[in-house]
Amino acid sequence: MSDLDRTWYDVLGVDRFADAATIHRAYRRRAMLAHPDRGGSEQAFVEISAAYEVLSDPDRRRDYDAELAGPQVTHRRRWATEPREDTGLADVLWHLPEPTRTPPVATGGLLITSPPGAVAAVDGRTGRERWRAGLGRSAGARPGADADVVAAWTDDGTVHGFDTATGERRWHHRLEEPTGFGLACGRGLVVCARSDHRLDAFDAQSGRRRWHARLTAPPTTAPVVVGAVDPRARGERGAGTVVVFGGDRVVHAFDTARGHRRWRQRISGLVDHPPVVVGGVIWFAALDGSVQAMEAGTGAHLARATAGDTATGIVVGDDAVHVTVLDDVGPALRCLRLPDLEPDWRVGFDDLPAPPVRAGSWLTLVLPTGDLATIEAHHGVLVQTSELPSPPSTAAPLALPADGVGAEPIAYTDAGSALWAVRQPR
């Protein structure tokens, strides 16, 4: 590597995905070795100090990353924005060739999968199966899970409850309507959204039916229990609310304790991707191209912006909302700045990707073209691509527990429903 090609990351001996703690440790180690009082080189010490000064400051680091990336160009090869680096094959951490009938669900470092005739819990770090429980039939809907219970819905209309830690079967309950749309777990409940316009809520421990409620149309998403996994929602008005989107463009909210209706609001477009709940606010992307926010406790509309002709998936961070869209140019990932949803950057692709995974300053996307792409979240710089080991399905990827080595790992299902854990190579 020539001096002209060296970056501040190279000076400290870290990769561009390194977190602040890793950068700090690398600086202390190298600065100590290069210090003139210890017989080191003054020039090297000055260079190491300059690198740390830039990379330890989040704003200066973002600007530096954007400078390294250079100008973006459109429509090259398999993506519409030229990556800063194409690094060959993605690193494979583990692989489960047995197909999962539904996309997996993440909870507490586990991935809950649906192998044929069963439900299973897989360790997200190692890919080892923690437990497997037989269902007798195939899964009919994506499972639900939290730290306490795993719920599976089979194609004969039976809902099963299992202990998350051990896989021990707690209960099962046969519903009158076998067709289910989705499950949610939280606040001691398992909530089932049925195609006959009904919600059923069962006690997570005993399986006893706690309440049921009617919708005005079949649901288009699985239900969401507000405050189930988001500690920022505790104590807010939205905690203890079940929210579900209907096919008549009406959003319904019910109290988790008794199933009483809290509110009902009509929205402008259909929603067929799961909403995101952050701090008691429901964020969703609609098929009319809009991104919207509602207060979970009251249903009040808080924000709305048009991101494209069709919006399909959303990721919410502290400073921005990132949404996958089809706009007048083509498929893209767009950034809308909070709090006013002001449009910022756009990265175009040849095919519409699933919603990304965000880890710190990085967005990771699984592209339909078979590539793993990493984008710097603040400036929208496409910094790295690598080739996936197998073409992906359309299901959104899931974040896996970080191991402190290299880029953040993700899990994705391929076109044959096998499960892979991958990350960008160093």
Unreliable spans? 71-81, 229-236
Termini gap: 16 Å
Beta-strand percent range: 35-45%
Trace the largest sheet across and list its strands: 3-32-31-30-29
Coarse shape: globular
Structure summarized in a few sentences:
This protein has 426 residues and is mostly beta strands. The chain contains 4 helices and 35 strands. The longest helix is centred in the N-terminal third of the chain and has 15 residues, at 20-34.
Keywords:
single chain, 35 strands, mainly beta, 5-stranded mixed beta sheet, 426 residues, 4-stranded antiparallel beta sheet
Protein model, in words:
With 426 residues, the chain is mainly beta. It is 11% helix and 43% strand. It has a 5-stranded mixed β-sheet with strand order 3-32-31-30-29. The chain has a 4-stranded antiparallel β-sheet with strand order 4-35-34-33, with no helix packed on it. The longest helix is centred in the first third of the chain and has 15 residues, at 20-34. Residues 71-81 and 229-236 have low confidence and may be disordered.
Write the layout of secondary structure elements.
Elements: H1 8-12, H2 20-34, H3 42-55, H4 58-69, E1 74-76, E2 79-81, E3 86-89, E4 91-96, E5 105-107, E6 110-113, E7 118-123, E8 129-134, E9 139-145, E10 149-154, E11 158-163, E12 169-174, E13 180-186, E14 189-194, E15 198-203, E16 209-214, E17 224-226, E18 241-245, E19 250-255, E20 261-266, E21 276-278, E22 281-285, E23 290-295, E24 301-306, E25 310-316, E26 320-326, E27 331-337, E28 342-348, E29 357-359, E30 362-366, E31 371-376, E32 381-387, E33 398-399, E34 410-413, E35 419-423
Parallel strand pairs: 3-32
Antiparallel strand pairs: 1-2, 4-35, 5-6, 6-7, 7-8, 9-10, 10-11, 11-12, 13-14, 14-15, 15-16, 17-18, 18-19, 19-20, 21-22, 22-23, 23-24, 25-26, 26-27, 27-28, 29-30, 30-31, 31-32, 33-34, 34-35
